[in-house]
Design a protein that fits this description.
Low-confidence stretches: 1-23
Helix content: 55-70%
Order of helices and strands: HEHHHEEEEHHEHHEHHHEEHH
CATH class of the largest domain: Mainly Alpha
Number of strands: 9
CATH architecture of the largest domain: Up-down Bundle
CATH topology of the largest domain: Outer membrane efflux proteins (OEP)
Radius of gyration: 46 Å
Mean pLDDT: 87
Oligomer: single chain
CATH superfamily of the largest domain: Outer membrane efflux proteins (OEP)
Distance between the termini: 7 Å
Strand content: 5-15%
Largest sheet: 5 strands, antiparallel
Number of helices: 13
Shape: elongated
Length: about 500
């Protein structure tokens, strides 16, 4: 049945779909069923795809809230260059005789623990469920929108059928009028009247064909497809049986309260706001924190000769001081045992000439300077623990609690307002369904009576007891009755679609 096909389409609408660009050109079948139309709209309707785009961020928000309970890890690495010159920091001047390059790294871990960390995942899960329900609501709207336009297109096609029947009847009437005129049983007035009626019917047929094409174009637009689809060859093949409605108002309201996605979305948002109130109240509790880190650095002077020269000057000063100390010790009356240094040049790190450093010391200076970029000097491990207890925050927490409670109250009233609106919409749509059903029965009876009246008028005209005006009036009455019946039938189907949209699920 139609409801099962619509239900199946709703289930498909809840599944993830590939982007339209990954699916290649969209081909519309020449014979289009309702299920195919809903599938195409699910894949291509931009409004529905916009709603679907909210699913991934909502899911990622849940993951982010869950991972926020774990420590955060950070890694940093960088390089820098400093030129030679002087710089002042804190009133102290520092001189750097050689340009230098440096590199560093750091690894840190931080963990904060409070009640909000544990409640935020529940808030995000409720909001994710609200997002899922919003997507489902967009799917219900899409099904209702496409189904309604599908029905409008079928109605336009049925109007074309009525117009074709009228042209056929007027053609037969013109043929009969001409035949009777030729045998002298009818006047030229009857022939002219039949020609006028046929011309009017042909114009109405052209207008009906235009209306059908426009309805197909609108259907294709709602499917999310480009306008280059050949609408003239597009045929809608879905049957819509006319079944007496047997809906119970209270049962429909109960069903809507359980399954209407718009209402369920508001309920989930209310749950999220309720948890947010708890989180705001528990912000008065302390926050625990722990952090640790490792780091290292390198610094390499680009002009190594300056380092060697500074070390040489220092070594020469040490050698001179050593020689001076030796002279003092040697002049004492009682020499200090072991106080005299035999070789001050070797002691200071100079070679035998005293004008250069020992090769081992020069190599050590070179090795100590050749650290860029990966020979890091590691800093000690650091660990810190802390506890933060809010005492006075100038009523900031009280303001946060008040705002959270206001949002919860608004969400609660939003749910109640949606329930009232849904109940009223269901009652109104159910009344529309029942009224439309009664109209179909009345219009069907009227259609049968109009056909019988036309048959009687035609029979009277054939035997010479009737006039062409009677046939023209009877044919117009039949056309109007059939058009009214078509309107009543599709108004009934559209009313059922509106009732299903109000409930949020198929009903037949």
């Amino acid at each position: 049945m139609l409801a099962r096909r619509v239900a199946g389409a709703l289930i498909v609408l809840s599944l993830a779909v590939l982007p339209a660009s990954a699916q290649g050109p969209v081909r519309v079948p020449r014979q289009l069923s309702l299920a195919q139309a809903l599938e195409l709209s699910k894949q291509n309707n931009p409004t529905y795809r916009q709603a679907q785009a909210n699913a991934d961020p909502a899911a990622e928000a849940v993951k982010a809230a869950q991972w926020a309970q774990l420590p955060t890890l950070n890694v940093f690495s960088g390089m820098s260059y400093t030129g030679a010159g002087s710089s002042t920091f804190g009133g102290t001047t520092f001189n750097q005789t050689s340009p230098s390059v440096s590199s560093s790294y750091s690894f840190s871990a931080n963990w904060q623990l409070n009640t909000r960390n544990f409640l935020t995942p529940s808030i995000q899960r409720a909001q994710e469920r609200a997002t899922v329900e919003n997507i489902a609501a967009a799917g219900v709207t899409l099904v209702s929108d496409v189904t309604s336009q599908y029905l409008n297109t079928l109605r336009a096609a049925a109007v074309v059928g009525v117009a074709v029947q009228q042209v056929t009847r007027d053609t037969a009437f013109l043929t009969l009028a001409r035949a009777r005129q030729q045998v002298g049983q009818a006047s030229l007035i009857d022939v002219l009247q039949a020609q006028t009626a046929m011309a009017t019917a042909q114009v109405q047929l052209l207008q009906a064909l235009q209306g059908e094409s426009q309805a197909k174009i609108e259907l294709v637009r709602r499917l999310g497809l480009p306008a280059d689809v050949d609408v003239d060859s597009l045929q809608l093949v879905e049957p819509f049986p006319l079944v007496e409605p047997k809906f119970d108002l209270q049962a429909l309201r109960t069903l809507a309260h359980e399954s209407n996605p718009t209402l369920r979305s508001l309920q989930e948002q209310q749950r999220a706001d309720h948890i947010s109130v708890k989180a705001a109240r528990l912000d008065r509790l302390p926050t625990f924190s722990i952090s640790t880190g490792l780091s290292g650095y390198t610094q390499q002077f680009t002009n190594e000769s300056i380092l060697l020269n500074n070390r040489l000057l220092g070594a020469q000063a040490t050698e001179a001081n050593c020689a001076f100390q030796n002279e003092i010790l040697m002049g004492l009356t009682t020499p200090i045992p072991g106080g005299i240094i035999a070789d001050c040049k070797a002691y200071a790190g100079l070679d035998a000439t005293g004008n250069a450093l020992q090769p081992s010391i020069s190599q050590a200076i070179h090795n100590g300077n050749s650290v860029f970029p990966f020979s890091f000097t590691r800093q000690p491990l650091s660990v810190s623990l802390g506890i933060s207890l809010p005492i006075w925050d100038a009523y900031t927490r009280s303001l946060g609690i008040s705002r959270a409670e206001a949002l919860e109250d608004q969400a609660r009233e939003g749910v109640r307002a949606q329930q009232l609106a849904t109940d009223a919409q269901i009652q109104s749509q159910l009344l529309a369904v029942r009224t439309a059903w009664l109209r179909t029965q009345i219009q069907d009876t009227n259609r049968v009576a109009a056909r019988q009246q036309l048959q009687l008028a035609q029979d009277r005209y054939r035997i010479g007891n009737g006039t062409g005006l009677e046939i023209a009036d009877a044919q117009n009455a039949v056309t109007q009755a059939e058009a009214d019946y078509v309107t009543a039938v599709y108004d009934y189907h559209l009313a059922v679609v509106g009732l299903e949209a109000a409930v949020g699920r198929p009903l037949r």
